[in-house]
Amino acid sequence: MRNEDAVDLLIGARLAELRAQHGWSLGELAERSGVSRSTLSRAERAETSPTAALLNRLCHVYGRTMSQLLSEVEAAPAPLVRAADQQVWQDRASGFVRRSVSPPHTGLRGELVEGRLTPGADIAYDRPPVPGLEQHLWLLEGALEVTVGDRAHRLGAGDCLRMRVTGATRFRCAGPGEARYVLAVVRP
Predict the structure, then answer these.
(1) Minimal CA–CA distance to 61: which of 87, 97, 24?
(2) What gap in Å lies between CA 114 and CA 139, rounded to an integer?
(3) What is the 3-state composition of the chain as percent helix, strand, coil, each rounded to the nearest 5?
(4) Cis ω on the peptide bond leading into residue 176 (within 30° of 0)?
């Protein structure tokens, strides 16, 4: 079994567990998240790899950041996580690779994430996973367009964008090369 498949199994099990903890049916979760019952069912059974947009919607419903959700599928939290052991998740459909750099711990408010977008990648989130989330995006390589609400920001290597996320956001890599960035996320 590939590592990506194992991560999808763990994510699916955690999503099913969260839904059960809230006492929601698939129909109730579909209404709350705006995601179809069939998509939710396939994600919970790991029949499909969930997209970043799908996980974002579910994180919003459950009041978690994506890093928190991903850290919940790991074993015990540690103060140090070696590069080789950092959780990597890939949205194959959009060309997005996400590495959880910070040691996972659900009790902390801040986390670091490395993001990579292939040329042409375009990811739109209709809402933040946690309203009022503060993010600092430091672009290490490439070019990236980040839209927060109705305002677009064009970033080049070395630029840093600070944003408080209360609504829709969009990350777009027009190319010609990959965009690689560090995202510092701080819960309100």
Answers:
(1) 24
(2) 10
(3) 30, 30, 40
(4) yes
C-alpha to C-alpha distance for 130 and 178, rounded to whole angstroms? 27
b/e per residue, 56-83, with b = 16+ CB within 10 A? bbbbbbbebbbbbbbbbbbeeeeeebee
Give CA 55 to chain center in angstroms: 6
Closest by Cα among 58, 71, 183, 26 to 128: 58
Tens of pLDDT, residues 23-55? 899 999 999 999 999 999 999 988 988 888 899
3-state secondary structure of 70: helix
CA pair distance 79, 149, nearest whole angstrom: 35
